[in-house]
Amino acid sequence: MRKLINAPGDVVSDALRGLAAAHPSLRVDATGGTVVRADAPRTGKVALVSGGGSGHEPLHAGFVGPGMLDAAAPGQVFTSPVPDQIIAATMAVDGGAGVLHIVKNYTGDVMNFRMAAELAEDEDIEVVPVVVDDDVAVEDSTFTAGRRGTGATLFVEKIAGARAEEGADLAAVAAVAREVNERSRSFGVALSPCTVPAAGAPTFELADGEMELGIGIHGEPGRERVEAGSATEIVDAALSAIDADLPLAGEELLVLVNGMGGTPLIEQYVAYAAVADWLGGHGATVVRCLVGDYVTSLEMAGVMVSACRLTPDLTRLWDAPVETPALRWGR
Amino acid sequence: MIGLTGPAADRWIRRAAALVSADAGELTRLDAAIGDGDHGHNLDRGFAAAVAALPADAPAGRVLIAAGRALVAKTGGASGPLYGTMLRRAGRVLDDCDDPDAADLGAALRAALDGVRELGRAEEGDKTMVDALAPAVAAYAAALDGGAPLPGAARAAADAAAAGADATVPMQARKGRASYLGERSVGHLDPGAASTALVLRALAETLEG
Questions:
Q1: EC number(s) in its UniProt entry (chain B) (predicted)?
Q2: How far from B204 is each of A173, A292, B135, B149, B155, CA to CA, in Å?
């Protein structure tokens, strides 16, 4: 397939150069692989650093700015960043109050962030890691690497970012990040695979009329392959899986209907209508929602549904001002 | 008894990089089947960096530590930390020996395995690189105990690694991204075990001259 690239090896650095040109509010090192708030470090403020493979845009670099992340370390496509990148981002934003590492639960991300945290210790920077693992499609974490971090990463980054912005200490910021993760679940469905530029071929094949249930965000196959259903059936599968793990009835919810990169907004709204109907019919109230491409998997078609059980405090933090390339309100 | 010299360690890393580069497409294809399809290209990038970082005229321990650091710094994913740890741990053991012999290389390989096991929290049967590395370490020690010379022991290790990699085909993955597939991971060769077999093959070919 044709891709809008110059060379497979330059995709990430070229994209970072574009990000820098488009957003003067960011300080971007396209070769070193870091994206930092231009006004960092902020003395006395807990800093938030996240990162992971590229190909999930706007996650994470698109969420760098006031009210959310202080820095992001984007790795190669679908490949976690290396410790050098993570420590460079960490040192660039530490304002003396410590740094929260927001890590999605993938083996490579966890290992590289762990190695970077050890390096930070040598620099006398206090680092606390929070691992996001919201994906209910991974049924038995005893025999797997554990649940993947997917759509709820956005919730964690936004809400913990708001807590840090209002001056909370590192322990309190980490606590709210863990609370959001524990109260959130996600489930994804793929209608087409995606192609990693360096590999040049789709990561899996889907026949016409098939869909992959329970996907992650790396184009990896999911929990099972089934006959493709209607939007209503797909949403029912996703929300039933979430509800079975974290009952939603009677809850006030933050809901994300997330496009995987190759599904048009009109279809995402079709999905959102089904989500609203399903939740209304199951006694849950949606008090905040987002519809759009936020945690993508290159050009994969499909949607991921994420839900977070809100508390009044979490709702307040979600509503707090944010100003990043991909998420902004209230400022 | 002759051990792994500095120049031999240098040739090992270069040979491993060449084998990984030649097989990058195949490793990526294996990874696409049960992972996310980047293993070959990542490892190719990492080993190219390792070759570029090789120190001149250094003893074997220093060579492996430098290569391991470069792998961590340039590979990313799980492969970077795992391969980096493997080479750095082996390098540290050799670095502590005045004149490392074949037995010391055995100890270095054992330390490499321990490092990978700890970091990946994987055991034999999990369908990971441990399934190639563990039998290789055991075969090396057994061959040496049986009186084999260094090249023979390295060949035994390489053959055991290849057999160990092949043995991952019927396994169900319990670690790494393939674990998310559950039963669907059965029937595929683990890409990490396959690349580990290449690295051990490079060692044998280097020592065989």
A1: 2.7.1.-
A2: 52, 53, 15, 12, 5
**Is B72 in contact with A198 (Cβ distance < 8 A)?**
no
**pLDDT, tens only, B48-68:** 999 999 999 999 999 999 999
Residue B1 has pLDDT above 60, yes or no: no
Closest of B24, B77, B27, B68 to residue B49, by C-alpha? B68
The reported pLDDT for the residue numbered A219 is: 66
Q: What is the pLDDT of residue A142?
A: 60
Fold match between domain A11-167 and domain A184-309? no
Instruction: Please enumerate in sequence order all residues whose Cβ is within 8 A of that of B31, keeping only pairs 6 or more positions apart, or say none.
Output: B37, B38, B39, B40, B191
Residue in A23, A60, A101, A218 annotated catalytic? A218
Asked if B175 and A145 come within 8 Å (Cβ–Cβ), the reply is yes
Please give the residue that has the higher pLDDT: either B209 or A314: A314
Core vs surface per residue A284-297: b (16+ CB within 10 A) or e: bebebebbbbbbbb
What type of residue sits at position A246? L
**Residue ranges, chain A, pLDDT below 50:** none
pLDDT, average across residues B197-209: 96
Reported as a single tens digit per residue, the pLDDT across B20-52 is 999 999 999 999 888 877 899 999 999 999 999
Averaged pLDDT, B141-147: 97
Q: What is the ipTM of this complex?
A: 0.86
Instruction: Among A81, A107, A223, select the one facing B176 at the smallest CB separation.
Output: A107
Least Cα distance to B72 among A267, A114, A60 occurs for A114
pLDDT at position B181 over 90: no
Q: Which tokens is A41 given?
A: 């470090």
Q: Which residue(s) pair with A69 in the sheet?
A: A64
Domain ranges of chain A: 11-167, 184-309
**Domain A184-309: homologous superfamily in CATH:** Dihydroxyacetone kinase; domain 2 (3.30.1180.20)
Examine the residue annotation and report whether A56 is marked as an active-site residue of this protein. yes
Helical (H) or strand (E) element with B142:
helix B130-145
Q: Other C-beta atoms within 10 Å of B21: how many?
A: 16
Closest by CA to B180, choosing from B4, B10, B34, B28, is B34
The interaxial angle of helices B24-34 and B191-208, nearest 10 deg, is 160
CA separation for the pair A107, B71 (Å, rounded)? 16
CATH topology of domain A11-167: Rossmann fold (3.40.50)
State residue A323's pLDDT score.
97
Report chain B's mean pLDDT, rounded to a whole number: 95
State whether B180 and A144 contact (CB < 8 Å): yes
Q: Respond yes or no: is residue A23 known to be catalytic.
A: no
Pairing relationship of beta strands A322-323 and A328-329 according to DSSP bridges? antiparallel
Best of A113, A220, A225 to substitute, by most chain B Cβ atoms within 10 angstroms, is A220
Cα(A235)–Cα(A268) distance, rounded to whole angstroms? 11
Residue B81 in contact with partner chain A when CB distance is under 8 A: yes
The whole-number pLDDT of residue A217 equals: 83
> Which chain A residue lies closest to B72 (C-alpha atoms)?
A82
